[in-house]
Amino acid sequence: MSPLLATDGLTAHYGDFQALFGIDFEVGAGEVVAIIGANGAGKSTFLRSVCGLLPVASEQVRLDGEPIGGMPAHRIAARGLAMVPEGRRLFPSLSVEENLLAGAHLRRAGPWSLARAYELFPVLREKRRAYPRTLSGGEQQMAAIGRALMANPRLLICDELSLGLAPVVVKGLYDALTQVVREGLAVIIVEQDVALAQGMSRRLYCFQEGRVSLRGASSAITRAEITRAYFGV
Amino acid sequence: MPISASDLIGWLDTLIQGVLLGGLYALFAMGLSLAFGVMRLVNIAHGDLIVLSAFGGVALALGTGWSPYVAFVVVVPAMAALGYALQRVLLNRTLGGDILPPLLVTFGLSIIVQNLLLEMFSADPRSLRAGGFETASVQLGGGIAVGWLPLSVFFAAAAVTLGLELLFGRTRLGRAFRATSDDRVTAELMGIGHRHVFALATAVSFAIAAVAGIFLAFRTTVAPSDGPGYLLYAFEAVIIGGMGSFWGTFGGGVILGVAQAVGFRFDPGWGILVGHLACLAVLLTRPEGLFPRTRD
Lengths: 233, 296
Prior knowledge:
Chain A is α/β, with parallel strands linked by helices. Chain A has helices spanning 43-51, 73-78, 96-103, 114-120, 122-126, 137-149, 167-182, 194-200, 223-231; strands spanning 5-14, 17-27, 32-37, 61-63, 66-67, 81-84, 155-159, 186-190, 203-208, 211-217.
């Protein structure tokens, strides 16, 4: 059986600049996989390529074995990929509730609804009429996660959830994510916080300068290996 | 100098006629405001699309002999379809990044539409005859009469404005319009394809231009080269009202109409000028418009 999402020798370019050099990656149904790596290692480029925001060769990205590389982002979303983008990227002129509803634009069937999103993050129910700019960073991140879940995705991609947030807030977010994962949702976590990434995931990839420098079961990888893969020393 | 009762009634009459004229200007402006709000597209051909719709109504009435009101049922959806296709095929390619390409392309469209109309209909002004409705009026007392047609145009403009507010505020498509306007890339990640959403916005914009054009042909005569003048009124209404809301655009149209009516009362040659001066005064004192967005 083919994995849920797989990339096969994925390469990506920004103009003349090559950012990814043959990434082999896969995530199975219900699996949580983390990607770590220094700034500029290619993590964000990888996510952009997978989501359809960068032009890549069609057979280099497969969902359920079907090539989706280079498809428009909205078509890939329709196949069940949802993203919590780096920096949240909530829609500023939409209220919290409207942001959540925008996530459900495609009306895919599944367990997630406004009621479920509010159950997961009760504070969002209180602030459902508020606009994103009036929310704290943590609340904004909750809204962004809720918005992605509202799409009833098969694969959730979380880009730098912890960025700029206090540790206690980050812990709350990941506790919520753990609940979601228990229901069998596949997740790709991109994290700066290595310990967090290791703790959340079953398997882990480390990127370095556009290549995979380390992969393996998260529980089996040692600190020394990660340090070497991270910095290339 | 004492003000006589007849003077007061005269001014009241001017005010009412100006407000009603403003309804027409609001209809001119609404599609322009929508296209700019959703896509940051400034459609220079908007006035010509109004004129095109007017001629569409005239051609339909002449060609079929049907009631001129049929134009609302035929020309409005036809213009919506034209808008969708034009956005998909042409205008989407001009958007993103620089604001100059859409300006140039719609300017070119404006010239094409004017010359096509000139070829097909000659330079003669045309109008739609509505079987007496266009001249019928209702007496409000005190010698003030209000035409049924201007009244209908005003209520149509209010209905269109209310409809747009509900569409944008309450519906899935409206959320998609606003989300795409906020952040096109993130909207794509939610499955909101911006090319389709933009084309729908243009379809709505063209449909409103069609409603405006048909009413215009009922109200007055229309010639192929009139478009840029109507575009100017539309711009002025948007500038006076501010970009935030459709009710703001509606208010801008009404203020422009009243300013012109007041000018006309002083001297028939001054009406248009006073309208321009009102717009200029708003630009100088409140560049963000009189009714800017207050939300968020």
